[in-house]
C-alpha cells in the first residue's frame, strides 16, 4: 500500500525532527535539507536509512546526491515505493 | 616576537563531575567531603564484579539540545559542557573573533581522553550485530575517535591554533594541560582550553578493570570504597566527567583585565618503563618527573604548600607517589598539605588530570586544601601530611602546588601551579 505525498512529507518531518530537532511543520517540500533543516551530509545518511525503513524503498548512495530538498525526497519515494 | 611575558596563567575553570554539574558545585562538595560514588541501578550492572561507580551528578543530555547530544559520545558531551563553563568563566562569550575578543588563529584546544568513545563503539557494534550494517550510524567514527572532544570544542569556540588530544591513560588530562601551556609558552597560542574528559561507565570497561584487580569491589559501601592512603584501600572507584581550564599568556590576560586564578609554572614528565599496568613501587619514575619539573620551571620547593595527589586508592600506587615526593622534596614536603580528591570524585581516568587541575587552581585561589575522605586509619608508611576529613587553610604569601597524574603504561605527569 503506497503512501500519499502528504503521508510521505509527514513521515519525513518526523524523521527530520528526530535527527535535527526541526519542528515538524517546518519540514515542507521547498526546504533544502542542508541549508534550511540543519541536516549535514552525515545526518542525511540517517534520514535516508530511516526513510528506507519507513517507506519500504531502497535509496542507493548515488541517488542520495540528487535529494536536495524535501520535495526531491518525496518525489523519489513516491516513484520508488513498492 | 616582542619581549612579551609568555608566563601562563589560569583564567577560567569548568567541570562536570560526580560531585556536581559545574566547577562551583564540585568545589563546594569537595570542601564538604562528599562522595560521588553510587550504586549502578542499570540491569547490565547486576552481574558485574563491581556494581557501583562515581557517575556524573548531572546528565549531559539534560544540558545539551538533543540533536547535538545524539551526535556526540558521552565523553564529548562532558567535555563540551565543561569547556563552555571554563570559557564563560574566563569572561568569554560566543566564538573567537566574533563575540569573544580572541584571535581565532591564536586560540587552541587540548582536550584529552584516556579511552575515547568506547560506549559509542559498543552501542554501534550492537546495532551492527542486531540490525545490520546499513543501520550503523554515519556519526559513529566522528563520535568514537578520541580526538572528538577536542575537535568539537574547537568547532564550538572557533579555535584554529590547533586542537590536540594527548593520550596517556589516566595521565591524559594532565598531559593536555601541560601541552597547552607549551603552546602558549612557545608562542603558538595566546589562549588554550585544556583538560580531560572520560565516560566509560559501561559493562565492558568495568569488567576489564575489575579483572585487572585495579578496582575496589566493595559493592556494599560505594561511598567509602575510594579511600586513598587508608590502610584498607583496595582499588580505585571508576568515575566519569570532565574538567577544563582556560590557560592564557599573562600578557593577554592582563590586556583584557581577566581574573587570574593562579600561574601554571610548567610540567614534569617521565615514563616508568617498568610494567604496562603496575606502578613502579619505589616511585623512581615519578621522582624523575618531579626532578624534570624542578629543573625546567621556576618552582621553588620551599614555596610548596599543597599537592593534589594522583592517589587513586590502590595499595601500591598511593605509596609509590608519596615515596617519590619525599625522595625529591625531602623536608620541603613536611609542611605540604596533601589531598586525594579521588576519594570523593572517584577516578575519572583521562578526565582526572583536568579535574585535578581545576581543584588545584581553586585551592590556590581560595587558599584551602580540600580533604581526603575515608581515611579511618592512615597507612603508617605514608610519610606525608595528608589532609584528612576536613579542608585545611593554606598559608598566605606566595605558595605553590602540584597536581599529580599517572597512567597505565607508566606515564607520569606533574603540573606545578603558583599563586599570583
UniProtKB/TrEMBL annotation, chain A:
<keyword id="KW-0597">Phosphoprotein</keyword>
<dbReference type="InterPro" id="IPR009081">
    <property type="entry name" value="PP-bd_ACP"/>
</dbReference>
<dbReference type="InterPro" id="IPR003231">
    <property type="entry name" value="ACP"/>
</dbReference>
<comment type="similarity">
    <text>Belongs to the acyl carrier protein (ACP) family.</text>
</comment>
<dbReference type="GO" id="GO:0000036">
    <property type="term" value="F:acyl carrier activity"/>
</dbReference>
<keyword id="KW-0276">Fatty acid metabolism</keyword>
<dbReference type="GO" id="GO:0005829">
    <property type="term" value="C:cytosol"/>
</dbReference>
<comment type="pathway">
    <text>Lipid metabolism; fatty acid biosynthesis.</text>
</comment>
<dbReference type="GO" id="GO:0016020">
    <property type="term" value="C:membrane"/>
</dbReference>
<keyword id="KW-0444">Lipid biosynthesis</keyword>
<dbReference type="GO" id="GO:0009245">
    <property type="term" value="P:lipid A biosynthetic process"/>
</dbReference>
<dbReference type="Pfam" id="PF00550">
    <property type="entry name" value="PP-binding"/>
</dbReference>
<keyword id="KW-0275">Fatty acid biosynthesis</keyword>
<protein>
    <recommendedName>
        <fullName>Acyl carrier protein</fullName>
    </recommendedName>
</protein>
<feature type="modified residue" description="O-(pantetheine 4'-phosphoryl)serine">
    <location>
        <position position="41"/>
    </location>
</feature>
<keyword id="KW-0596">Phosphopantetheine</keyword>
<keyword id="KW-0963">Cytoplasm</keyword>
<keyword id="KW-0443">Lipid metabolism</keyword>
<comment type="function">
    <text>Acyl carrier protein involved in meromycolate extension.</text>
</comment>
<feature type="domain" description="Carrier">
    <location>
        <begin position="3"/>
        <end position="81"/>
    </location>
</feature>
<dbReference type="GO" id="GO:0000035">
    <property type="term" value="F:acyl binding"/>
</dbReference>
<comment type="function">
    <text>Carrier of the growing fatty acid chain in fatty acid biosynthesis.</text>
</comment>
UniProtKB/TrEMBL annotation, chain B:
<dbReference type="GO" id="GO:0005829">
    <property type="term" value="C:cytosol"/>
</dbReference>
<protein>
    <recommendedName>
        <fullName>3-oxoacyl-[acyl-carrier-protein] synthase 2</fullName>
        <ecNumber>2.3.1.179</ecNumber>
    </recommendedName>
</protein>
<comment type="pathway">
    <text>Lipid metabolism; fatty acid biosynthesis.</text>
</comment>
<keyword id="KW-0444">Lipid biosynthesis</keyword>
<dbReference type="InterPro" id="IPR014030">
    <property type="entry name" value="Ketoacyl_synth_N"/>
</dbReference>
<keyword id="KW-0443">Lipid metabolism</keyword>
<dbReference type="InterPro" id="IPR020841">
    <property type="entry name" value="PKS_Beta-ketoAc_synthase_dom"/>
</dbReference>
<keyword id="KW-0012">Acyltransferase</keyword>
<dbReference type="Pfam" id="PF00109">
    <property type="entry name" value="ketoacyl-synt"/>
</dbReference>
<dbReference type="InterPro" id="IPR014031">
    <property type="entry name" value="Ketoacyl_synth_C"/>
</dbReference>
<dbReference type="GO" id="GO:0006633">
    <property type="term" value="P:fatty acid biosynthetic process"/>
</dbReference>
<dbReference type="InterPro" id="IPR000794">
    <property type="entry name" value="Beta-ketoacyl_synthase"/>
</dbReference>
<comment type="function">
    <text>Involved in the type II fatty acid elongation cycle. Catalyzes the elongation of a wide range of acyl-ACP by the addition of two carbons from malonyl-ACP to an acyl acceptor. Can efficiently catalyze the conversion of palmitoleoyl-ACP (cis-hexadec-9-enoyl-ACP) to cis-vaccenoyl-ACP (cis-octadec-11-enoyl-ACP), an essential step in the thermal regulation of fatty acid composition.</text>
</comment>
<feature type="domain" description="Ketosynthase family 3 (KS3)">
    <location>
        <begin position="5"/>
        <end position="419"/>
    </location>
</feature>
<feature type="active site" description="For beta-ketoacyl synthase activity">
    <location>
        <position position="170"/>
    </location>
</feature>
<keyword id="KW-0275">Fatty acid biosynthesis</keyword>
<dbReference type="InterPro" id="IPR017568">
    <property type="entry name" value="3-oxoacyl-ACP_synth-2"/>
</dbReference>
<comment type="similarity">
    <text>Belongs to the thiolase-like superfamily. Beta-ketoacyl-ACP synthases family.</text>
</comment>
<dbReference type="GO" id="GO:0004315">
    <property type="term" value="F:3-oxoacyl-[acyl-carrier-protein] synthase activity"/>
</dbReference>
<dbReference type="InterPro" id="IPR016039">
    <property type="entry name" value="Thiolase-like"/>
</dbReference>
<keyword id="KW-0276">Fatty acid metabolism</keyword>
<dbReference type="Pfam" id="PF02801">
    <property type="entry name" value="Ketoacyl-synt_C"/>
</dbReference>
